[in-house]
Specification:
Blueprint: H1 27-30, H2 38-48, H3 52-60, H4 65-75, H5 80-83, H6 87-100, H7 113-120, H8 128-131, H9 137-144, H10 156-169
Helix pairs in contact: 2-6, 4-6, 6-10, 7-10, 9-10
Bound molecules: heme C (HEC).
Heme C (HEC) binds next to helix 8 and helix 9.
């Protein structure tokens, strides 16, 4: 589990925070507590430089997440950008590549689970409803196929990717959620 060690560390001291809605242009900051998805992780790694055999695999390979995790682990010695990922990030990237590759890593990268959560999961309730839940992938897929959610537009592979992203990265303790996103945001 990604978060248990963090519970209770934040906000031990009563800070004089007021729940102010985010100002225009600061959306990125207010969502910074939501862990990066595979697209952002890959973008950063590409900017730092990846060996050609790895970028070629992204353009060609269609393998599952466990296989991608092995490929990433094997690439560590020649790729500091991959070596620098923690285990959760490597898993997040492996699941992203499993559902989205093959694609051209020199082109625009396909959206990741975090991108989808921010794009698709805020119009009826705040993102907190999503990212604070800890669930199995079957439970996430069940939520997305429930009547309230079935009309959200994604491909089947994207739903699987979003579920995998949330299994690895959701369950964020409420202490880590900015006060402005903690309560009162559900409109259903
Ligand atoms: C069209 C409106 C709408 C959108 C868009 C939406 N939701 Fe919801 N969501 C609801 C409603 C209505 C409820 C409460 C009723 C229910 O649980 O079905 C809810 C409740 C939830 C819950 C808590 C209750 C449960 O089912 O466990 C979760 C988790 C959730 N949504 C996840 C998501 C995710 C993930 C997305 C983005 C992929 C999303 N929602 C986008 C309407 C929406």
């Amino acid at each position: 589990m990604r978060y248990p060690a963090l519970v209770g560390i934040a906000f031990c001291v009563a800070l004089p925070f007021v729940a102010v809605p985010p100002a225009v242009g600061q959306e990125d900051d207010v969502f910074a507590f939501i862990p990066l998805g595979g697209r952002s992780l890959l973008e950063a790694a590409l900017a730092e430089g990846l060996p050609n055999d790895l970028t070629e695999r992204i353009a060609e390979a269609e393998v599952d997440a466990a296989a991608w995790r092995n490929i990433l682990d094997a690439a560590k010695s020649g790729a500091p950008a991959i070596d620098g990922l923690d285990s959760w990030q490597a898993d997040t990237l492996a699941h992203y590549l499993a559902w989205q590759a093959p694609f051209d890593p020199a082109g625009e990268l396909p959206r990741d689970g975090r991108d989808m959560a921010l794009q698709l999961c805020q119009s009826c309730h705040i993102i907190t409803v999503v990212v604070t839940q800890e669930r199995t992938r079957e439970a996430w897929l069940g939520t997305m196929n429930s009547p309230s959610h079935v009309e959200i537009t994604t491909t089947d592979a994207e739903r699987e990717l979003l579920a995998d992203y949330l299994v690895i990265n959701a369950g964020i303790p409420i202490d880590l959620v900015p006060p402005a996103l903690r309560a009162g945001g559900a409109s259903y």
